Automatic annotation (TrEMBL):
The lineage of its organism: Bacteria, Bacillati, Actinomycetota, Actinomycetes, Mycobacteriales. It comes from Corynebacterium alimapuense. InterPro entries: RE_endonuc_C. This is Type III restriction enzyme C-terminal endonuclease domain-containing protein. It comes from the Bacteria. Pfam families: RE_endonuc. Residues 141-247 form the Type III restriction enzyme C-terminal endonuclease domain. One of its GO terms (molecular function) is type III site-specific deoxyribonuclease activity.
Length: 268
């Protein structure tokens, strides 16, 4: 592999006399990814990005060196990046069946749909619901909002078809409003929420849907498959807290009508 060079930039915000704001960038330094890093510093940087104890990293490197001699000047920014990435990929794969969610006590505050008293907001930002807006179609009566906002053709179809008797109310989940924490960092938020009722008219459960515009689960990136598995476990843990909820991914070929009927039938 050839040497990789890059530049570091510093961006400064400047307020002009007329109140406008400009940004100015300046080059701070030039670096070479193959520039050597002192061994102790390399271990510390690896620890800060993986939380693996430096002594354990050292032990592993010594063992690796005994099996196959590490190249001269091995410890640089490139090998540090490869080590961190390799560990993160390994952890994501190995921990997918070993993590769980636990409820913690805390104060509930305002949400994307309610104020800090739990009352519904009168208005929300459309961009938090969907980047597109259908001005021509009639907004479904049971849709939570007064505009048909969506992010993809599949979402638009789902909104249009969710007019079953079993549906009490449904809506797009505002972005980042139900953040499902991921064990490998970050969080995701599903796409749709439903309140459903059984054949006797009794409110039976909450239905959460994550829409994916692919034919098969295997068509998703590995990280997205892990997101879905994390979401499934998260809502299973919520269900155990006596809040009835079911989570399902919706693929391109999945009809929301069939999905809703299957969920309601399974609950009866």
């Amino acid at each position: 592999m050839g040497q990789v060079f890059g530049r570091g930039f510093r961006e400064t915000f400047v307020i002009n006399d007329d109140g406008t704001v400009d940004t100015r960038s300046e080059t701070r330094s030039t670096y070479d990814s193959t520039e050597a890093i002192p061994y102790g510093e390399w271990l510390q940087l690896a620890y800060e990005q993986t939380f693996l104890p430096p002594d354990r990293i050292h032990t592993g490197l010594v063992a690796a060196d005994k099996k196959k001699k590490l190249p001269k000047n091995f410890f640089d920014k490139a090998t540090l990046g490869n080590f961190v990435t390799g560990f993160q990929v390994w952890m994501q794969r190995e921990m997918i069946s070993r993590f769980s969610y636990t409820k913690i006590e805390g104060l509930a505050g305002a949400t994307a749909l309610t104020d800090d008293q739990g009352q519904p907001l009168k208005r929300i930002i459309q961009g938090n619901i969907g980047v597109y807006r259908d001005e021509e179609s009639r907004v479904p009566e049971k849709f939570l909002y007064d505009v048909l906002a969506y992010d993809s053709p599949k979402e638009k179809q789902t909104i249009r078809d969710s007019h079953l008797d079993q549906v009490v109310v449904f809506g797009k989940i505002p972005r980042r409003s139900i953040p499902v924490p991921l064990y490998f960092g970050g969080a995701i938020s599903p796409d749709f929420m439903y309140v459903l009722k059984d054949k006797d008219g009794k409110l039976s459960l909450n239905f959460i849907v994550e829409t994916k515009d692919v034919e098969e689960i295997t068509d998703l990136r590995e990280s997205e498959q892990m997101w879905l598995e994390a979401s499934r476990k998260f809502f299973e843990s919520v269900d155990k807290e006596k809040i009835k909820v079911t989570f399902r991914p919706q693929l391109k070929s999945d009809d929301i009508v069939t999905m809703i009927r299957q969920v309601v039938d399974a609950d009866n």
